[in-house]
Here is the input.
Amino acid sequence: MKKYQVFVSSTYPDLAEERKEVYQALYELECMPVGMELSPAADEVHWRITQELIENSDYFVLLIGGSYGSITENGKSFPQLEYEYASEMGFPVLSFLHKNPIFIPVFKTDQAYERVQLLEAFKELAAQKTVSYWGSTEELGCMLSRSLLRIMKAEPRPGWVKADQSILDEANLHLFRLKEKVRKLEKRLQSSSMLDTKDLAQGEDTFEIIYVYKETITSYFKYGTISLSWNDIFSKMCSNFLDQTKEDEYHKKLDAYIKNLTNSKLGNPYFLSVIKDEFKTIVVQLKALGLIEIRKRKRATHDTTQYWKLTPEGDKLFTQLRAIKKSPLP
Here is the structure.
């Protein structure tokens, strides 16, 4: 069954109860609510994660009470930035404004003239799209349900489905964390051709890998984790691949190794694979450590496959890890 992801935007402390009511209404509609709670800090990283949450949502819900919210460096609150970004991206937007602001408790409203003006301007902006006015949390929940049902019928969206009905690496909030890791590593690589690796996890440092598996051909997909050292990941993933190799071959090699390690625990599962973004994190990490590099070669125009090869440093480490050590003298 298709489920819709709905991004809920609002100020937080003054609308905490209203957000709970909206989330409950969305759960009852079998939707997946997301919002700024999934982003830990109010900074540039917070905004990038928020943008991605909006981009991966199907509908956008805005709640406005009596507070404009914290003002960012560009002079706007996060709810207004989120609203404008969703509008620019063309997402269906539902705005809910308090119809009796004078009845909002004073401690939940802005008093400074400048902030009141900003709030009123934001309300006028929101009123340019579909807008409803609520007076109580219960009324808001009912209003949200009716409005969302109408817009889902009028403007159906792609939605999300269970992993066994679609691609394996969808509908999992772990992906936001994993994609952020990839972005950070790639940004560091772009900033310097000679990346200082002393601060990167490597060697015997461990990494928790998330994989998806099916116990039998008819069972549902499940998620599992396993912790491996970076040396172990590198030596097993790159086994037999001393020359240029397709990226998915590295993926298959790692899948086979983890399946072998987990056979006794999972009962020889029918299927097991490291989720795509988790594998991408591993590839970027090995690239950041200078152990593998993209292989540039001439090939057919329709061949868009990514090829990798060991760097001289990677070849050296691989040999050290896989070479047979002599037995100690008795």
About this structure: The two ends are 65 Å apart (CA to CA). Confidence is low (pLDDT under 50) at residues 166-171. Residues 247-266 form the longest helix (20 residues).
